[in-house]
Design goal:
- The protein is an alpha+beta fold and 646 residues long.
- The strands form 12 sheets. Strands 10-11-12-13-17 form a 5-stranded mixed beta sheet, covered by helices on one side. A 5-stranded mixed beta sheet has the order 14-15-16-18-22.
- A hairpin with a 2-residue loop joins strand 3 (63-67) and strand 4.
- Helix 1 runs antiparallel to helix 9.
- The longest helix is centred in the first third of the chain and has 24 residues, at 5-28.
């Protein structure tokens, strides 16, 4: 039967939509079966006997830890190595911390004292030793867990049930009473509160491990002036009956994780950690039963139960999408993550093998001609650790003794915000095309590495970077430095309040760092004739909103290159017009692996160049296929197939 090109185009477009939907479902709605053990690492030895080092994730993906009274921070995302930030002021504990919770904006953390005093200390992560910025708040005795409702309010489970702690003024108020004892507390993405019963201590009350949801409007009413305490036993929507309902939380897909162990409740809920599918949680909420529908026998909802842990502790890293699991009192942490989707089949790639070469020559028209690309570029980037360098393999003349000679600063994503002022009085600015990254980050971390003659760093990428026909403009690798355009008509003042709609771009300030690539850390190709690091295009971390003349919170995509046809054409434009040409990309210098002759690479080397005044490198990113381009690949692949079937 003869079919027209149109009918095949529609068919191929439908297939493409289904394929992309399958891929995006892995990334944006991971089920419990998608998680797999990816690595392990070891925490520092506890300084207090019979205690445990607690961790929580910072917004940049690194981990913050508390060991005794010492605050520690991971040296780089995924490194598993920690450096001390000092002893937390106004904090003491005899048994080790009961909980550690980083605020949503990543500037402060709350730590429970785990003793009868009922003290929660909130400290500045950038300077935890400062008594001026570390405050101890009095709550009810025996704090067990804490979760931030927002940057100014903390919800704490303790001997009184569940309380809110408002930092401004230090007021506490009990919002939930529990017949047994409180356990874990957390919030879902809509701000609804989830709390658990840690021990069945009241006749006729809820069992150990009961987890209930309380609507945002309900708990906020209870927290307000004149609000009445909510009875956990008679109110709320029952969700699960698992373990001791301790260390509860959600991943980005809405799956629920539960830790702890019912050592005294007699339910037999020990020896495993639970991970509950989001669909099962939603079904329980919809059912609205008086008793939880999810329990230790719900095998379809609990992934393998992670057997072998007597009292497991969960932590979720929203920036990397990783789950950390370990047993209380043990130092080894098991890391679970969702593997990346595999590449599309060779049929689609073959369909545009020739088109890629043409696309490089007509860069600039390609995106404008593809209407789907605009909708893609408007979506905020979702961070994936493995898009970037994850390990320093070797370095030369980089002792890490000063602000700009730390090799590990290259690891992870390009800078989102940097501290333009003194560490004691941070003044955070967004990384943007008119203001290059320098100094330190929000948590006082080092951000960029300077390369002078004789200095070198080799890093390993989180996954192989491929010479891929579906990559925009034929670019496979992005390197980020701290180049910037000199802004005109700003009066010499540049910051986050500068209006990019009216600010025009002058000359670019750029330096040089030589880039080499290798598939095996043995065979290397050097881009001797450029491009180099720390040049076009300057990093721009967030989307500018023209309509309101303000910055949005949407992150631009570091895995998407800027059209190279726009190089040397941005001077004289307004900054807002220049960012329109970024088309959703975060900037970076683009490299085509076709020049190297390698099908893929896993290692990148940066070298200082003699005669140059030290180029800087912030990060290196693997480019990902452009969804609109994949759709075109599908159409071309099936257009060829049609001719064979006519």
């Amino acid at each position: 039967m003869r079919r027209s090109l149109l009918s095949f185009s529609l068919f191929s477009a439908s297939l493409f939509s289904a394929t992309v939907a399958g891929f995006s479902s892995v990334a944006s709605a991971a089920g419990i079966g998608d998680y797999h053990l990816t690595r392990t690492f070891t925490l520092p030895t506890p300084t207090i006997d019979f205690s445990s080092v607690l961790i929580d994730a910072l917004p940049d993906g690194r981990l913050l830890a508390i060991n005794g009274t010492q605050a520690l921070r991971e040296t780089a995302v995924g490194s598993g190595m920690f450096t001390s930030l000092g002893s937390v002021a106004n904090y003491s504990t005899a048994f080790g911390a009961s909980f550690l919770s980083v605020s949503p904006d990543g500037t402060k953390a709350a730590v429970g004292a785990n003793n009868g005093s009922g003290t929660v200390t909130v400290f500045n992560i950038a300077n935890p030793t400062s008594a001026a910025t570390s405050t101890a708040y009095n709550t009810s005795a025996f704090d067990f867990d804490g979760a931030w409702a927002d940057n100014g309010r903390l919800v704490v489970s303790n001997g009184a049930g569940v309380q809110t702690l408002t930092l401004a003024g230090g007021a506490t108020k009990t919002i939930l009473s529990i017949g047994g004892s409180s356990a874990g507390v957390t919030f879902d993405s809509a701000g609804n509160l989830y709390a658990g019963n840690g021990f069945d201590g009241a006749a006729g009350g809820s069992d150990t491990g009961y987890i209930k949801e309380f609507a945002k409007t309900a708990w906020e009413t209870a927290a307000g002036a004149g609000g009445s305490t909510i009875n956990f036993e008679t109110t709320g929507t029952a969700v699960a009956d698992l373990l001791s309902a301790s260390a509860i939380g959600f991943d980005a897909s809405g799956n629920l994780f539960v830790g702890g162990g019912d050592a005294f409740g007699g339910s037999g809920d020990t020896g495993y950690a639970a991970f509950v599918n989001a669909a099962a949680v939603q079904a329980a909420l919809t059912a609205g039963s008086a008793t939880p529908s999810i329990n230790m026998n719900s095998s379809a909802s609990i992934l393998r139960k992670f057997t072998g842990n007597a009292s497991p502790i969960w932590t979720y890293n929203d920036a990397t999408g990783e789950l950390y699991l370990r047993n209380f009192g043990e130092n080894t942490v098991s890391v679970y993550a969702v593997p990346e989707p595999t590449a599309l089949c060779g049929l689609l790639l073959a369909g545009v093998a020739g088109f890629r070469r043409r696309r490089k020559m007509v860069a600039g028209a390609a995106i404008a001609a593809t209407s789907a690309a605009a909708s893609v570029s408007s979506a905020a980037y979702v961070y994936n650790l493995n898009d970037f360098a994850v390990e320093v393999v070797s370095s030369t003349a980089m002792p890490g003794t000063s602000l700009y000679n730390e090799a590990s600063a290259i690891l992870g994503r390009p800078t989102l915000q940097f501290n333009s002022g003194n560490v004691a009085t941070p003044d955070l600015h967004r990384a943007k095309l008119i203001e290059g990254t320098f100094n330190t980050g929000p948590s006082n971390e080092k951000l960029i590495t300077t390369f002078n003659a004789g200095q070198s760093v080799t890093v390993r990428m989180g996954h192989a970077v491929t010479n891929d026909p579906s990559h925009p403009y034929g670019i496979d690798l992005n390197v980020f430095g701290n180049a910037f355009f000199t802004p005109n008509n700003t009066g010499g003042n540049t910051g986050d309040t500068t209006n990019l709609n009216t600010t025009t771009l002058g000359s670019i300030f750029a330096e040089n760092a030589r880039i080499s690539v290798s598939p095996d850390n043995v065979n290397w190709y050097t881009y001797a004739n450029g491009p180099t690091g720390d040049g076009y295009f300057p990093t721009n971390s967030y989307r500018w909103d023209r309509a309101t003349a303000t910055w949005s919170t949407d992150e631009l995509d570091p895995t998407k290159p800027v059209d190279p046809a726009y190089r040397d054409t941005l001077t004289g434009l307004t900054a807002a017009d220049a960012l329109d040409r970024y088309n959703g990309a975060a900037g970076g210098a683009g490299f085509d692996l076709a020049e190297s002759g390698f099908a893929s690479i896993s290692y990148v080397r940066f070298d200082g160049l003699t005669g140059y005044n030290g180029g800087e490198v912030d990060a290196v990113a693997a480019v990902t296929p452009e969804p609109a381009m994949l759709g075109l690949m599908a159409l071309l692949g099936f257009a060829g197939l049609q001719r064979t079937r006519d």
